[in-house]
Amino acid sequence: MEDYRGQVAECFLYEDFMKNLGPAIYAKEGRDEMMKELEEKHVADFLKKFETLLSDDRRFLCNDTLSTYDILTSGFFINLVLNPNSADPELWARVWETVPPKTKKFVAAVQDEFKDYLAKRADIKASM
After folding, report:
1. What is the predicted pLDDT for the residue at 97?
2. What would the pLDDT profile of 36-88 be if each residue is shown by its tens digit?
């Protein structure tokens, strides 16, 4: 059952959600409308589904130990939503405000596991 939650989370992100994310972000025409639909519909759908896989009694998707599934799924939040250098930071800030509590707790737990790397990543970006 533990792996199942991770596999389902990965499917929610990569098979259901990402098919809408990429086309909206990289659209040459109609980008504003696509990003609005992404924010209002597709992000909300993903967040609702993702939240159902998390539990108050586990730090991560599968248990209290970081897994590949945690790394794969948290990347959306850490590398895009919470990244001030990403495109559309105002949109992603609004999205973060709508993220449910268990998902925020999950993202914080993953960030804690990678705090040294994330701190260095910011320094590397600044020096480029």
Report:
1. 97
2. 999 999 999 999 999 999 999 999 999 999 999 999 999 999 999 998 888 89
Give buried/exposed letters for 11-28 (b at 16+ CB in 10 A, else e): ebbeeebeebbeebeeee
When the pLDDT of each residue in the chain is averaged and rounded to a whole number, the result is 92
Rounded to an integer, the average pLDDT of 33-38 is 96
Residues 6 or more apart from 36 whose CB is under 8 A from it? none
Q: What is the CA radius of gyration of the chain?
A: 15
The secondary structure of 31-94 as a DSSP string is HHHHHHHIIIIIHHHHHHHHHTT--TT-SSSSSSS--HHHHHHHHHIIIIIT-TTSS-HHHHHH
- In total, the chain counts a number of residues equal to 128
pLDDT at 127 over 60: no
Residue that the structure tokens 């959600």 belong to: 17
Which helix (H) or strand (E) is 119 found in, with range?
helix 115-127
How crowded is the C-beta side of 38, counted as CA atoms within 13 Å?
23
